[in-house]
Amino acid sequence: MDIELTNNSISKSVDRESIVEFEKMLSNVEGAFFGDTDFCPLKHSFSDGVYVREIFIPAGTVLVGKIHKHDHPNFLMSGTVEVVTEFGSERIEAPKSMISKSGTKRVVHAITDTVWITVHVNKDNTTDTAELEDNIIAKSYDEYDSFIRKKKSLIGRLFGYLKLNSK
Question: What CA–CA distance (Å, rounded) separates 166 from 122?
Answer without folding.
Answer: 32
